[in-house]
Amino acid sequence: MRTQVVIIGSGPSGLLLGQLLAKAGIEAVILDRAGKDYILGRVRAGVLESGTVGLMDEAGAGGRMHAEGLPHGGFSLAFDGRDHRIDLADLTGGKGVMVYGQTELTRDLMQHREAIGAATIYDAANVRPHDFDGRSPYVTYETAGVSHRIDCDFIAGCDGFHGVSRKAAPEKSITTFEKVYPFGWLGLLADVPPVNHELIYANHPRGFALCSMRSQSRSRYYLQCALDEKVEDWSDERFWGELRRRLPAHHADALVIGPSFEKSIAPLRSFVAEPMRFGNLFLVGDAAHIVPPTGAKGLNLAASDVHYLYAGLCEYYQDRSSAGIDAYSARALSRVWKAVRFSWWMTTMLHRFPDTGAFDQKIQEAELDYLTHSRAAATVLAENYVGLAY
Ligand code: APR
Ligand code: PHB
Fold first, then answer.
1. For the whole model, what pTM was predicted?
2. Among residues 367, 370, 325, 338, which one has the least CA distance to residue 350?
3. Fold adopted by 181-267+356-386
């Protein structure tokens, strides 16, 4: 088989890239080692920057997102028993974010891909990129014990942090940067109305808490927890009790509780691999970088990578110019590092670290106080939260 672009990974990066390429008349095959149900079973963040919303529209897959997503013009920072609203719209000249679950976005992209009849091969085992340094790249994989080969012009490694693409890059040509945080997030989903009409990021002596949502009737809550905590030790009752303690009283009193239908613990890490291109192999999204979820940048960074790579591939096929693909890695990384910095900063400002001493505590308090009293400081937060320009 031959195609123009082989996309490894059918997460949001691979699906968005595939859909944009299809719109531009560029043929792509998507391979994923997992099945559709497994991919749609993963619970992830749900805050979209306007650039991500724009790409979903450009891909022709934004209909349900506009109908069911919740546009937010602000969020709250809670600390010291009070909360302070960051008015995103006012601080950024009318910008905001769209609250829409990543699972739903993935489902929409899958459905649109099926509707145009583009090829996706699920449950593909032993996917391997080959010869991407030469002129004839190809990808091999197995289905039901049978080996296959797809020849192509380019390979897009959209296969997440644990994928094969980054590992295929020659060791001497790749540099990685990593910071692992000494805590995790315990997340819970429940069909109860959200405690507030906007998100609340709470700094509390007992640890960080986040109140988010998936809809007017489905809430997503998180608690900072130790890395050795076990989900089994967190009954719903314990979770709700702990969340209440970490919120200012007026929110705690308004909290509606109910049975959860999902609970999981995720570690927090910052990770970047440089460069993001190795010959005709491009790394996209989580395959190249991970950010802690504070600030919800993971999916949005995947989308900006897709934007740069899509633009470069269009230039290549439509204008016969390699300028865009040659600039891909530098363009993507320049935006990635700014989001890595922002996510690290939000994480540092809002969490309790095991070694937080009296000094660090005072610095956190001063930072939060500064944000609530300086429009310039709040603008820096707001501009990054809604997403930097592509
Ligand atoms: N072969 C084929 N497919 C693979 C392989 C492999 N060796 N390894 C992983 N995959 C597939 C996974 O099954 C998954 O469906 O690649 C896909 C990667 O998807 P994601 O992990 O969702 O990564 P990405 O599409 O870049 O999405 C980034 O997801 O992890 C969040 O916070 C992150 O929101 C961000 C977004
Ligand atoms: C979520 O809704 O899952 C979410 C929202 C905001 C974040 C992280 C996660 O910063």
1. 0.97
2. 367
3. D-Amino Acid Oxidase; Chain A, domain 2 (3.30.9)
